[in-house]
Amino acid sequence: MAYDADTAITIWPEYFDINRTRAEGRRLPKKLCVQYPDIDIIAKGALIMDLEYEIFENKAYPANWAAKRGCVKVEKGKISKTVLLPKIAEILIKNQKK
To answer: What family does this belong to (predicted)?
Structure first.
């Protein structure tokens, strides 16, 4: 399936931020989270999984509207969001240790 901005999966850096609570938007267990997740590394994760994506740098997570950390939209269809997030988290963890 090709990338379609209307149906794409939106991935926010807040999903991977170890300093946020689940109520504040973290979607994964803390062992899969990092400090200061980077949208470029999130996009790299989508690229590694051979998914089409688009980076939006000036977007703000709705629950954190004051901080415009951006987001990545990934094509929908090849993989579900629940499978995609842990895989991207592993890539973030590997790249943070460097």
So the answer is: Belongs to the SRP19 family.
